[in-house]
Amino acid sequence: MNQYQQPKRKPVLVVEDEPLLRMMALDLVEEAGFEPIEARDADEAITILEARTDIIVVFTDIDMPGSMSGLKLAAAIRNRWPPIEIIITSGKFRLDDSSIPARTVFFPKPYDHGEVVAALKRMSSLT
């Protein structure tokens, strides 16, 4: 790598149906030093995951339109792409470790940006 090349940032898939919340989450991911990839719903997220092998973390809302919720998306990710780390968030639901897949972190909305950034950095160091 020469002095003008940026180190490759690790990609994080943000799955959020609300445009403003998605933009805020994408900004958070980018400011934390990751490459933000966006999906409007779980179906779009699955399509992206099928096409890309470099996603390290998925940051998803629970309540979304489409064929599956963020919880079902998390279960599908854990089943099909076990190495991917998962962060779930919701303003409507409160979850504990028994109701989410292994190696998944839950943050209620409004989430603390510092806590999410810390989780992203911790999770990315595992990959």
How much is the average pLDDT?
92
The structural class is alpha/beta
Beta-strand proportion = 15-25%
Domains (count)? 1
One letter per element, helices H and strands E, the order comes to EHEHEHEEH
- According to CATH, the fold-level topology is Rossmann fold
Notable characteristics:
127 residues, alpha/beta, Rossmann fold, 5-stranded parallel sheet, 5 strands, 36% helix, globular
Description:
- With 127 residues, this protein is an alpha/beta fold.
- It has four helices and five strands; from the N terminus they run βαβαβαββα.
- Strands 2-1-3-4-5 form a five-stranded parallel sheet, sandwiched between helices.
- Strand 1, helix 1 and strand 2 (35-39) form a beta-alpha-beta unit.
- The two termini are 21 Å apart.
- The mean pLDDT is 92.
Question: Could you write a compact summary of the structure shown?
Answer:
This protein is of the alpha/beta class. Helices cover 36% and strands 20% of the residues.
Which helices and strands appear, and what pairs or packs with what?
Elements lengths: L10 E5 L3 H13 L3 E5 L2 H10 L5 E5 L8 H11 L4 E6 L13 E5 L4 H12 L3
Parallel strand pairs: 1-2, 1-3, 3-4, 4-5
Helix pairs in contact: 2-3
